[in-house]
Amino acid sequence: MKIVVLKFGGTSVGTTEKIKKVAEIIANYKKKKYKVIVISSAMSGVTNELIKKSFQISENFSESEHDVLVSSGEQIACSLIAGRLKHKGFKSRSWLSWQIPIITVGKHKNSRINQINKNKIFKYLRDGGIPIITGFQGINNENRVTTIGRGGSDASAIMFAKFFKAERCIIYTDVEGIYTTDPNKLKNAKKN
Ligand code: ASP
Ligand code: MG
Q1: Contacts for 132 with CB less than 8 Å, ≥ 6 apart
Q2: Which ligand is nearest to the CA of 46?
Q3: For ligand 1, atom 9: residue with the closest CA
Q4: Is 137 close to ligand 1, i.e. is its CB under 6 Å away?
Q5: What DSSP string describes 101-163?
Q6: CB-based contact 127:133 (threshold 8 Å)
């Protein structure tokens, strides 16, 4: 299976117009006969806004609720991307971390991805689907939502590339261009 992981950062999904462009990029890979796994961050600014709200509620906002709150930005972005791909006639759906699941270990706000269950995503890819997966979040062994640290969706993408033995992992950031990297040789990441 020729798999590519495409990761979109906050700026690249920052508006609905940009999300339409992202859907075109994804569609192009699909047309090149790749099995495409998409990882998305939240739309730019969303995560910060959510954190602000938590401070308005309490200066000691619970860490487990923090993770539920701040991980919700990724859900929005993934749904919009999948919705656009469906609009264009592709088979696509959003996947939240608990639906896969993506298992993390460690503390809330700073967990680490330990394991990704491949079965459902592999089946979905084989059936021609384009999974749009929330970066930055996971679940722990108590079934609580976790996050893996600010900017963590890059790490989510790299873990997917590794677990699924992807041919390529491409990280799109509107600000700094496109990085391509062999998931096994991260130090050689190149900016195009
Ligand atoms: N949305 C999260 C953040 O702003 C994760 C990420 O962007 O990678 O930190
Ligand atoms: Mg980011």
Answers
A1: 38, 40, 78, 79, 81, 82, 85, 92, 93, 94, 95
A2: 1
A3: 150
A4: no
A5: TEEEES-TTS-EEEEE--HHHHHHHHTT-EEEEESSEEE-TTS-EEE--TTTHHHHHHHHHHH
A6: no
Q: Which two tokens stand for residue 68?
A: 């539920």
Q: How far is the CA of 13 from the centre of ligand 2 (A)?
A: 11
Q: What is the pLDDT of residues 22-33, one digit of tens each?
A: 999 999 999 999
Domain over 3-172 is classified CATH 3.40.1160.10: yes
156 token code pair: 């989510």
Quote the pLDDT of residue 173.
87
Q: What ranges do the domains of the chain cover?
A: 3-172
Please name the amino acid found at residue 146. Answer: T
Q: Is the pTM of this model over 0.85?
A: yes
Quote the pLDDT of residue 1. Answer: 87
Q: Max alpha carbon distance in the chain (Å)?
A: 50
